[in-house]
Design goal:
Blueprint: E1 15-19, H1 20-31, H2 43-52, E2 56-60, E3 63-65, H3 67-75, E4 88-93, H4 99-112, E5 116-121, E6 125-127, H5 131-135, E7 142-143, E8 164-168, H6 170-174, E9 181-186, E10 192-196, E11 209-211, H7 217-233, E12 236-239, H8 247-254, H9 274-280, H10 285-296, E13 301-304, H11 311-316, E14 322-324, H12 326-333, H13 337-350, E15 358-361, H14 370-374, H15 378-389, E16 393-396, H16 423-437, H17 440-443, E17 450-455, E18 465-472, E19 475-482, E20 488-495, E21 498-501, E22 508-511, H18 515-519, E23 527-533, E24 539-543, H19 544-549, E25 552-556, E26 561-571, H20 577-585, H21 593-601, H22 603-612, H23 615-627, H24 632-656, H25 662-682, H26 686-690, H27 694-705, H28 714-733, H29 743-747, H30 750-760, H31 765-781, H32 789-799, H33 803-808, E27 812-814, E28 817-819, H34 822-841, H35 849-871, H36 876-884
Parallel strand pairs: 1-2, 1-16, 2-5, 5-12, 12-13, 13-14, 14-15, 15-16
Antiparallel strand pairs: 3-4, 6-11, 7-10, 8-9, 9-10, 17-18, 17-20, 18-19, 19-26, 20-25, 21-22, 23-24, 23-26, 27-28
């Protein structure tokens, strides 16, 4: 039974390779316990792979390997070696990996996390002592005599089966020759066969393998049956060295046309004319494979490792689902950028569908690692970006994400280099690459893929810059990358030529698209496009008409890139506010375009607001406290503060369109400022001594608030910001409490201005935003005290149900209990007491008995509240219980 009937999963595959035995050894070291079977792979490891965004896991070397290959590897230098992963004994999951049961366990756990397993199938050859060599020797390319008289086979018998002897040529042992055959001896009949090693004609034969004879129809059928069995087990199948089995290359290698010489020693004498070869090998093997899989195991993705310029043939003629695109790795590594752009342009001009059939990679098991080829810096991330955002299938190598540099041999049981994952590389993947893997649906298709030329100011195309866009539904993306160690600047304006469907059936015409057409954005004067750069997080705004006519101007440093995502379109209003904003920004990015628009619109409010809450004004208020409120300098400072507040309130009134009396609200604000100053000077004063009960209260408050003569004291900045917002809200909505919600603070972006101002007053960023949250809470809860005890209890209890208060008090679950933060609670109660007292004494000129009693009552309530919190153990449920009886 297959895993899924979702036939749309194939385009979204992102594959990561793991050399099975090496991975298990690395996991053993990582987790500090023996992990040698597939079912022992920790769930945490699979969770991580899924969280990163991978949907396919390629397990290299999972099949039962050739014992003879292992022995050869060990006798020739590595006593710890396994057999080669591509010298296969039989297509059963290796017993020392846990066998079929362990595989099924891993398969099921991976599938629960959306990961399909992938496996190799090696159709070209088997191990020299494979089950087929033992039981079906006729399936292999062979001779009944040794092709070279000088060959000798006096070395050890490599067979594990007493019925058969297996001997490789002596030149392999002393490295004096590269034999093309090995000797198979049937001990029962005495028959001797000389079977060819697997060979692609480019280097030495693979001396631990036996070459299958695909000229034999029975062999082709048997291999197809194995492929179908593998496909029923693995939804993703990779075919090793697939190009060797195309008719053209199989004949070239093994049955060359007479007179051509042949590429493998001794095969010229077995040449075959094309007509005879066609009669015996009438259909392309891979075409048969694709058709059979489509009929019998349709939910299978087939990947072909194919080189020798066979990529297009595998896709167009043979129908292979995916094919290796080695040009991606090789050309981008060598910065042959014009050549690779030509590869992509040729595909787009012929048939864009081919582009999504490519497997793009930066290393494979036969190559140096990605870290060795591309480094770990900006170039690596730029090419990785292209790999994960181009159509096709992205394939990551073993250890690529961790920055491991060791190339693991196919016979490795473990890694030999003592390497640790590169934390910086992992973090950059987390920030820059994995978010794109999770959006693979946006990049995999070709229907809306567009490749652009990058025009420099002099009109020349910069071939080092790759610029392309794609769309899926309403989602759009624009990628721009400079694959060169030099700066680049210019315009993304018009696409390269591409083939699209014409009006008549089967007709193809070539077209070019503007950037606006590629992104499908509105081209009217009133339309504006807003988009975000993934790396910087900044948003940009551009008029749609300008994108169509001028394109997008970009400056790139060496190996720098941009990923523009989250496109959205808006229409300008009558006041042309977005047009004004675009002119104001002059191409710059901002954290949030809508917030930047508000800042532009509300600049008349923010300027006066900053004139009230800024380091200079806070310093003048502190000086008023020192000099006394009646001194000439103090009166001047108070007058300036009142004027600034009144200006701010007038501007706010104009923008908000509300009635109210700015002068009256400004007067109340100054009363509040006077109350703060009076309160900070009250401890030890003659008035305080009239009420002995105030002594302890005022001393306690002074210790808690710490209103020193210090510009950096939170007392001054928090109390002043609170007063401004308190009376701004009072003017707009009245002082009856109906204004007590946060919408107007957010609407006018005053919270952001406060946070920035607090930082200018010497507060670090984290603390600045904590205090800004505190100000908001105080604005809307300064009236917590009521004449009736029940009402006070209700208001204080309500605090615990408000999200802003919960965040400030750091509500958190631990051990199934909801807790709040002790120190934060103490800070909040200190300030609730202070603002309540400021409200109490504002406008008063002297301390009377009623005011003193009010001050002491508020203090008693806060002290009682702190005791109840301590008794609750700072558990939310316990605190609410106590407040019910408060």
């Amino acid at each position: 039974e297959r895993f899924s009937k979702d036939l749309d999963w194939m385009p979204r595959v992102v594959l990561i390779a793991k050399s099975a035995y090496v991975w298990l050894d690395q996991l053993s070291k990582k987790y500090g316990r023996q992990i040698s079977r597939l079912d022992q792979i920790p769930d945490e490891e699979i969770d991580t792979i899924a969280r990163w965004g991978f949907t396919g896991l390629w397990l290299i070397g999972i099949w039962e390997r050739s014992p003879a290959s292992r022995r050869i590897k060990q006798l020739t230098g590595n006593p710890e070696a396994l057999a080669s992963a591509y010298a296969i004994y039989d297509y059963v999951v290796a017993a020392d990996l846990g066998g079929e049961q362990a595989y099924q366990d891993l398969r099921d756990r991976a599938w629960k996390r959306g990961i399909r397993l992938a496996s190799d199938m090696v159709p070209n050859h088997t191990g020299i002592d494979s089950r087929w060599v033992m039981e079906h020797p006729n399936r292999f390319l062979q001779l009944d005599h040794c092709p070279f008289p000088g060959y000798s086979f006096s070395g050890p018998d490599l067979s594990h089966d007493p019925r058969v002897g297996i001997y490789i040529e002596d030149g392999y042992w002393d490295r004096s020759d590269a034999s093309v055959v090995f000797k198979r001896v049937d001990r029962t009949t005495g028959e001797v066969r000389f079977i060819y090693h697997g060979n692609d004609g480019t280097s030495m034969p693979w001396n631990d393998t036996a070459q299958l004879n695909f000229l034999d129809e029975e062999v082709r059928g048997a291999v197809i049956q194995v492929i179908l069995e593998v496909a029923r087990k693995f939804p993703i199948v990779r075919f090793d060295a697939a190009m060797t089995l195309t008719k053209r290359h199989f004949q070239r290698l093994w049955y060359p046309e007479p007179g051509t010489g042949g590429d493998i020693p001794s095969r010229a004498e077995h040449g075959m004319r094309g007509e005879e070869f066609e009669r015996r090998f009438p259909l392309e093997f891979w075409r048969e494979v694709v058709d059979r899989v489509r009929r019998e195991v349709p939910d299978t993705l087939l990947l072909a490792e194919a080189f020798w310029l066979m990529e297009g043939y595998f896709v167009r003629t043979l129908g292979m689902h995916r094919v290796y695109n080695s040009a991606f790795m090789n050309m981008l590594k060598m910065e042959e950028n014009a050549k690779y752009r030509r590869v992509v342009k040729n595909v787009l001009e012929f048939d864009p569908e081919i582009l999504k059939r490519f497997v793009n990679f930066m290393n494979n098991p036969d190559e140096a690692t990605a870290a060795a080829q591309f480094g770990k810096g900006d170039k690596y991330f730029g090419v990785t970006l292209m790999m994960v955002t181009m159509p096709g299938l992205p394939m990551f190598g073993h250890g690529q994400i961790e920055g491991l540099a060791e190339k693991y041999g196919m016979e490795y049981r473990k890694a030999y280099w003592n390497e640790e994952p590169d934390r910086n590389l992992l973090e950059r993947h987390e920030a820059e690459i994995f978010p794109l893997l999770r959006r693979r649906h946006l990049f995999s298709g070709v229907e809306n893929f567009v490749l652009y030329d990058f025009y420099e100011s002099d009109g020349r195309v910069n071939e080092n810059v790759f610029a392309y866009s794609n769309r899926r539904g309403d989602e759009r993306v624009l990628i721009i990358y400079n694959n060169k160690y030099e700066t680049a600047s210019g315009w993304v304006r018009i696409s390269t030529s591409m083939a699209v469907a014409g009006r008549r059936p089967g007709e193809k015409i070539r077209v070019q698209k503007t950037l606006a057409e590629g992104l499908s954005v509105c081209r009217e004067d009133s339309c504006f496009c807003i988009f975000r750069d993934l790396k910087s997080g900044l948003e940009y705004i551009r008029q749609g008409k300008k994108l169509a006519e001028e394109g997008l101007y970009i400056e790139l440093g060496a190996y720098q890139y941009h990923v523009f995502l989250d496109f959205r379109e808006i229409r300008d209003n009558r006041e042309a506010d977005y047009a004004r904003l675009e002119q104001l920004l002059k191409g710059r990015g901002v954290p949030d375009v809508e917030e930047a628009l508000k800042e532009m619109l509300f600049a008349p409010i923010h300027g006066p607001f900053r004139e009230i809450v800024n380091p200079l004004m806070v310093q003048r208020i502190i000086e008023v406290r020192a000099d006394g409120i009646e001194s000439p300098q103090s009166k001047e400072s108070i007058g300036l503060l009142r004027d600034n507040m009144e200006t701010f309130l007038h501007r706010l009134q104009e923008r908000a369109g509300v009635t109210g009396n700015p002068a009256e609200a400004a007067r109340k604000f100054i009363d509040g400022v006077r109350a703060i100053l009076w309160f900070t000077r009250l401890d030890g004063s003659q008035e305080a001594r009239r009420f002995e009960e105030l002594g302890d209260v005022l001393s306690d408050v002074k210790v808690r608030i710490r209103a020193e003569m210090d510009l950096k004291s939170p007392f001054w900045r928090v109390s002043l910001a609170w007063l401004v917002l308190r009376h701004a809200g009072g003017m707009m909505c009245g002082y009856g409490g109906a204004w007590q919600n946060a919408s107007w603070i957010d609407e006018w972006i005053l919270g952001k201005i406060i946070g920035q101002t607090f930082q200018s007053l010497g507060c670090d960023e984290t603390r600045a935003w904590q205090e800004t949250d505190l100000v908001r809470i105080l604005v809307f809860h300064c009236d917590w005290f009521a004449r009736r005890r029940e009402e006070t209890r209700s208001r204080l209890k309500g605090l615990f149900y408000e999200s802003e208060v919960q965040l400030f008090l750091q509500f958190n679950w631990y051990d199934n209990v909801l807790w709040f933060h002790k120190e934060r609670f103490a800070e909040l109660t200190d300030w609730l007491f202070l603002v309540s007292v400021i409200e109490l004494v504002a406008g008063k000129t002297r301390m009377d008995r009623k005011t003193a009693e009010g001050l002491m009552e508020r203090h008693r309530i806060m002290e009682e509240l702190r005791r109840e919190a301590a008794s609750s153990g700072y558990r939310v449920e316990g605190m609410l219980d106590r407040l019910n009886r408060f």
